[in-house]
Design brief:
The protein is of the alpha/beta class. The chain is built from 29 helices and 25 strands. The strands form six sheets. Strands 9-10-12-15-16-11-17 form a seven-stranded mixed β-sheet, sandwiched between helices. A five-stranded mixed barrel has the order 21-22-23-25-24.
């Protein structure tokens, strides 16, 4: 039944029903009729009742003859409205834009690049995005050349144009593709259809389709107005931008800004591109087909378009199981080449030479790779050109070598990784093991070589110099190790500036392992000292990089050695050692990690105090000597005489000998003023007699020992006694003199002690002379040392 609103002769609205068959010309409801003397007169679209409250409208204008859209003007207080009247539709417009008579969708005309579409598995994904996705305005169909991106979206547009109910009111397909690969001939031909190069042309095409406007939008003011009309349009619009990468970066930026303005409830945008760098919104990947799907795709083409040849192809595939693999390799699983194979197979039958006409042909290579470089990011372009210098004869190259060769033009590691990923995504290169990559096709290597030759001289020179620094592309080990090896080799034939420069490159490589940089620092310092006889330069280069090796005793030890070889730098060496072992630096002097450097430091600091340091008076000299003995020499001696210490290395023994020898010399100097270091000096001498038996050192210790004992004999006996003994010490002596009130005892000190009769054991004897006799041994304990009276009191024990 049809429902119409009528007005009776009194002008009152009445609801009235009638079978639709009575009005065969009608296609849509509701409509407004007037019943006058039994005759129906259609008033719509000139007068119309709409809305829940049946508001009254009158005809204002025909907005779109393709859809029958009419603007209605309210008679009373309600909003203007647009309403579709199919009876007003003009099926074709003057400029050949079509309208579906089924669902009223308007779509601009375009040339399809397929005669019959064979789905490669993404059409459903695209349709699902356009119909159901409520989160994003735009999506990007991404894939390599020839995988069917354009065919897919053109098929989707056609399906949406015909589908019922309507999904979009307008579909606009816009392409930037200026050339097409003709699959039957294998030739690239110019695209004779309209293609665009500028952003304003996109807006112009949308404006023309939706608003039937032929206005030139090349000026900014008109363009902005047209943009606003599209953004504010309340009807659903699908915009397709094909071959997006072909636009210049400036134009792409304008397109991106425009897409961000669109409203998700009314607008959807699909772009197609070969480059993942240009993805906008959701990503829909269109990949090459694997071997199995390649076979299915090929058989579908033959079945639907060349039915008579299907049996022959099936026979060939069954007889030669390896044939499908060869076809897959030749076509790369790209539908465009699978189509070409089908055409050639039908025309010529199968020949081995047939496969060579596919992706390896010059036309195919130009279609696939001819413009590939132009669409890469600037960083990826640098990598693209440089790969030709890193690849070996098998087109394989090390990723770390490429990063090194590009370290000047793409210094940021994150930017390098992004650019490298771009090359992988574009299938310019492919993974080859964990740390290497391989150029995808020989033709690409040729293009890379050409692009490298076109780079500026400075860039090519830098890459070649960096390659020379590591000894060429065929290296073993890491890049940093190769840099070090080349630096070491240059010591033989290179000049000093070049050799030091090579070492510096290793030292300044931030990602080089510390052990590589450490070896480079030690090697360059050694080279400057031994080969160039320049310890000053050696010390300076260590100082330059010392911050990274503050805890490394070998680096620090060599640094001190080079400083000590310079007369004016000995003070710096002394200060460095003392600072290294100061309290705030957690370098324990006797720790195995630091002990050898400490032993060397004992020798240097002691020698500096005695030979090179200047003093204002003797008191300051003596204080400095005692300080160095206590902070260095005494600690060294205490450690090497501890029960757990042993001389396991010859270098440890040598440095200890030197350190103790210098400490002994300091002790000798202090003994000239006081006897405070007599015991330490004597113990060092005794230790050296036992442990340092080699002739050279034994003689040196012996000479100093004689000096010390000579000094000791010229001292006041009482001073010697006070230096050697203290209260409560127990001694073994002999009775030298007996008196009624006590005993005098002689021992190895240069004086005697006295035991009062009250402090002897044999108190029961009244006659002391009968109990004790001169020359008899006696054990006694020192009870008091009276320095003022130079008197030593004892008791028998």
């Amino acid at each position: 039944m049809g429902f119409r609103m009528l007005s009776n002769k009194y002008g009152r609205k009445e609801r009235w029903t009638c079978n639709q068959d009575n009005f065969p010309e009608e296609t849509s409801f509701p409509r407004l009729y007037a019943l006058i003397e039994g005759q129906y007169y259609k008033l719509s679209p000139f007068v119309m009742l709409l809305g829940r409250n049946q508001d009254e409208y009158v005809f204002s204008s025909l907005e779109d003859s393709l859809s029958g859209s009419v603007r209605l003007c309210p008679l009373f207080e309600c909003e203007e409205s647009n309403y579709l009247f199919p009876e007003l539709i003009a099926p074709y417009s003057e400029d050949d834009r079509l309208i579906s008579t089924i669902n009223n969708t308007i779509m601009n005309t375009f040339d399809k690049n397929f005669s019959r579409y064979h789905d490669i598995g993404i059409k459903k994904i695209v349709l699902d995005f356009l119909k159901n996705n409520k989160a994003s305005v735009s999506a990007t169909i991404w894939g390599h050349g020839g995988v069917g991106k354009t065919a897919c979206i053109q098929c989707v547009c056609q399906e949406l144009f015909d589908i019922f109910p309507q999904v979009f009111a307008y579909i606009i397909f816009i392409t930037a593709k200026d050339r097409i690969y003709n699959t039957p001939t294998g030739k690239i031909v110019k695209n004779d259809s309209n293609y665009v190069r500028h952003y304003y042309e996109i807006i112009q095409e949308i404006n023309k389709t939706v608003f039937h406007s032929s206005e030139d939008l090349s000026d900014q003011h008109s363009l902005a107005a047209a943009e606003d009309r599209i953004v504010c349009c309340k009807q659903k619009i699908l915009i397709v931008i094909d071959d997006y990468e072909t636009f210049s970066d400036k134009e792409k930026n304008k397109i991106n800004v425009f897409i961000k303005k669109l409203v998700i409830n009314y607008h959807k945008v699909i772009i197609t591109t070969r480059n993942t760098r240009f993805i906008i919104g959701e990503t829909i990947s269109s990949n090459e087909l694997d071997e199995m799907t390649t076979q299915t795709f090929l058989l579908n083409i033959i079945k639907e378009e060349y039915q008579d040849h299907l049996a022959e192809l099936n026979r060939l595939l069954s007889q030669k199981p390896e044939l499908m693999k060869q076809i897959h390799i030749a076509t790369s699983g790209r539908p465009i080449f699978i189509y070409q194979f089908a055409h050639l197979f039908v025309q010529e039958g199968f020949k081995n030479s047939l496969l060579l006409k596919l992706k390896d042909s010059q036309e195919a290579q130009d279609f696939l790779y001819g413009r590939l470089y132009d669409y890469l990011s600037p960083q990826a372009q640098r990598l693209f050109a440089t790969i030709s210098q890193a690849a070996n004869s098998d087109m394989v190259f090390r990723v770390d070598m490429l990063a090194y060769l590009c370290s000047k033009c793409v210094p940021d590691q994150d930017e390098f990784d992004i650019a490298l990923t771009e090359l992988f995504n574009q299938k310019i290169i492919e993974h080859y093991g964990d740390s290497q990559a391989r150029i995808y096709a020989p033709e690409l290597l040729h293009i890379m070589e050409e692009r490298f030759a076109q780079q500026e001289d400075a860039f090519r020179s830098t890459v070649k110099n960096l390659l020379n620094n590591i000894g060429g592309k065929n290296i073993n080990g890491s890049i940093q190790q190769a840099l070090l090896n080349e630096a070491d080799l240059s010591r033989i034939n290179g000049n000093m500036e070049d050799t030091v420069g090579r070492y510096r490159r290793v030292l300044k490589t931030s990602d080089a392992p510390k052990y590589i940089r450490r070896k480079a620092l030690l090697n360059v310092a050694s080279y400057l000292t031994i080969t160039c006889l320049n310890p000053e330069a050696a010390a300076n280069i260590i100082a330059e990089f010392l911050e990274d090796f503050r805890d490394d005793t070998q680096v620090c030890s060599q640094y001190v050695d080079y400083l000590w070889q310079q007369e004016e730098s000995k003070e710096k060496a002394d200060l460095f050692i003392r600072k290294f072992f100061s309290g705030h630096n957690k370098h324990k002097k006797t720790h195995p990690k630091y002990f050898e450097f400490f032993a060397k430091g004992v020798g240097y600091c002691s020698n500096y105090d005695m030979t090179y340091r200047t003093y204002e008076n003797e008191s300051l000299r003596l204080n400095q000597y005692n300080k160095t003995i206590n902070e260095f020499g005494k600690i060294l001696f205490t450690h090497v005489t501890s029960p757990n210490f042993s001389f396991k290395k010859g270098s440890t023994t040598h440095l200890t000998k030197v350190g103790l020898l210098q400490t002994l010399k300091l002790c000798r100097e202090t003994l000239r003023k006081d006897s405070g270091k007599w015991k330490l000096a004597k113990d060092i001498c005794d230790f050296a007699d036992i442990h340092f038996s080699d002739k050279v050192y034994h003689n040196q210790f012996a000479r100093i020992q004689r000096d010390i004992y000579d000094l000791n004999e010229r001292k006041d006996p009482w001073d010697i006694l006070c230096q050697k003994y203290k209260e409560n010490d127990i001694i073994d002596g002999t009775i030298s003199w007996i008196q009624p009130y006590g005993l005098f005892v002689k021992f190895d000190a240069p004086t005697q002690g006295f035991i009062h009769i009250s402090q002897i054991k044999k108190t029961k004897y009244i006659d002391i002379y009968r109990a004790y006799s001169i020359g008899c041994p006696i054990k006694a304990q020192i009870t008091k040392i009276d320095s003022e009276k130079k008197h030593l009191q004892m008791r028998e024990v």
